[in-house]
Design a protein that fits this description.
Layout lengths: L23 E5 L6 H9 L3 E2 L7 E4 L4 E5 L7 H12 L3 E5 L3 H9 L12 H12 L3 E8 L2 E11 L2 E9 L4 H15 L4 E5 L3 H5 L3 E3 L1 H11 L23
Length: 243
């Protein structure tokens, strides 16, 4: 049994989450996917994840998968690809050009997956975060075509990664490398990756105890906000030279 979060009620402590399924903490109406509730959740190391037709389910897994920005792993082939993007005038890396398009691309059906957790309620909720400068996207285009990207929530000096997509080989990795370059410049030490995957592990992500994660988040979210306005409206390709 997990608690039902009524409107205005606080989340239970993250260490009350179930071991199986790992991290399931609480449920609520999808009407609780408000800006205020989402900020409260992320500040406490909690995120929503559920399928169409379910109530909103709130999670805080233990251990937690994170990518320390100093530990991004670039394979030889990815490093070569990043250098090519720096020079290629047809490839365009930008921040926050079309946040909703990135979310919809992340929500598109994928091989081996049945449905998506990025419901219309989730899309509307995170689009509102983006309008309030609390959620951001990194986007890679070839000409006018969006070929890869990612999005997540940024509170203080903490970035909570949500999803990424590729329509061309390596496109999401290029977007991640650009994000890491921005976060390193801004003094952001850690990206929340939420749950383990072989793809993220290959890029340097690793698991840490939930208690350690929560301690670091509590400090990071109180930091001064990242100046995302410095990265909008400009090509970010040259940031890849930082790697």
């Amino acid at each position: 049994m997990i608690p039902w979060i009524a409107h205005g009620a606080a989340f239970p402590p993250a260490d009350c989450a179930l071991k199986q399924p790992n991290g399931l903490l609480a449920a609520s109406s999808t009407a609780e996917l408000t800006l205020e509730r989402l900020v409260q959740a992320y500040q406490g190391g909690i995120f929503p994840w559920y399928s169409e037709g379910q109530p909103a389910l709130w999670w805080s897994p233990d251990p937690r998968t994170v990518l320390f920005t100093a530990e991004l792993h670039l394979s030889r082939s990815l490093g070569k690809q990043l250098r090519a993007v720096v020079r290629d005038a047809h490839l365009d890396l930008r921040a926050d050009v079309d946040f909703e398009a990135v979310m919809r691309a992340c929500a598109a059906p994928r091989a081996g997956q049945d449905g998506t957790w990025i419901t219309e309620e989730i899309l509307r909720a995170y689009a509102e975060l983006a309008r309030r400068d609390l959620a951001h996207s990194i986007e890679l285009r070839h000409g006018e075509q969006l070929i890869g990207g990612l999005y997540g929530v940024c509170l203080g000096r903490m970035f909570f990664g949500e999803s990424m997509f590729s329509r061309a080989p390596g496109a999401s990795k290029i977007a991640l490398a650009a994000l890491v370059a921005i976060l390193r410049r801004e003094g952001v030490a850690m990206i929340d990756c939420q749950q383990h995957s072989a793809h993220l592990t290959s890029l340097g992500a690793r698991e840490i105890p939930r208690a350690t994660f929560l301690e670091q988040v509590a400090v990071a979210v109180r930091g001064a906000p990242v100046s995302w306005s410095s990265y909008r409206g400009v090509r970010l390709n040259l940031l890849l030279s930082d790697h």
